[in-house]
Amino acid sequence: MKTKVVIIGAGPSGLLLGQLLQRQGIDNVILERVTPDYVLGRIRAGVLEQGFADLLRAAGAGERMDQEGEVHDGVEIAVDGKRTHIDFKKLTGGKSVIVYGQTELTRDLMEARENSNQISYYEAQNVTPHEIEGELPFVSFEHDGKKHKIQCDYIAGCDGYHGISRKSIPREHITEYEEIYPGGWLGLLSETPPVNPELVYVRHERGFALCSMRSQTRSRYYIQVGADEMVEDWSDERFWQELKRRLPDDLAEKLITGPSIEKSIAPMRSFVVEPMQYGCLFLLGDAAHIVPPTGAKGLNTAASDVHALYSILSKVYNEGRTDLIDTYSERCLRRVWNGQRFSWWMTNLLHKFPGTSAFEEKIHSSELEYYLNTEEGRRIIAEQYVGLPYDEA
Hints:
It contains 13 helices and 20 strands. The protein is of the alpha+beta class and about 400 residues long. It has a domain at about 5-70 and about 100-175 and about 270-350: FAD/NAD(P)-binding domain, CATH 3.50.50.60. The protein has an 8-stranded mixed sheet with strand order 6-5-14-15-16-13-17-20. The protein has a 6-stranded mixed sheet with strand order 8-2-1-12-19-18. Strands 3-7-4 form a 3-stranded antiparallel sheet. Helix 1 (about 10-25) runs parallel beside helix 10 (about 300-320). The two termini are about 30 Å apart. The mean pLDDT is about 95.
């Protein structure tokens, strides 16, 4: 079998890249280790920067997002009970974000993929890239008990932190940067109306909290918990009680609670690998970088990787611009590190971490006072949150 691009991983990054390439006439094959239902079962964030939303539309998969997604023109940040509104539209010249669950956008991309006549293999086992430094790269895998080999020009590694793509690069050719944060986020999904029309980030003595949503009838709430906490230790009742303690009084009073649909604890870490390319193999999304969820940058930095590779390959195949291939990593890392910095900043300012000195607490409070109480400070937050413009190849 031959194709131009093999995409390893059928999460949002792989599916989005596949659709964008297909619409440029660039054939591709997607290989995924698990079933479609398993992919759709991953409960993840859903705050989409304007650039990501535009990419979904360009991929022909944005119709339902535009119909059902929640357009948010701002967020609120509550510190010690005082709420401050960050007005995106006013501060960024009209930009906004869309709240649309990752499960739903993945479903839309899967449907678009099925209609594209491009090939996808789910439950592909032992996927292995070969000759990624040579002139005749290929990917081998097993499916339905048979061995397969796909010759290709390029390989896109969209298979996450634990996938084979990054592991296929010799260790001496990459550098990894990592920061582990103490504790994690305990998240609860419920069929209840959101407590506020926009997301609310909360800094409180007892720890961080976040009020988010998936729709007008489905809410997602988070509280910061310790590193040794287990989901099984948190009944729904205990979660709601703790959330109410951390919310400003007016929000706590009107919070509507209900049975959880899903509960899980997500650890917090920052991770970046450099470079994000080796030979004909490109790393995208979690295969190359992970951010703590505070700044809503994980899915969005993955989308910017997709945009970078898609725009480069479009010019490679349509204009013969093979000189652009080696610019991929540099283009991506500029935006990746900016997302890392913003996520790190938001995480440290809004969480209560053990071991933080009294001096550091005062510094954090002073910094928050500046950013929340001045228009220039709020503008910086708004510009980072809605996302910086993509680099064009």
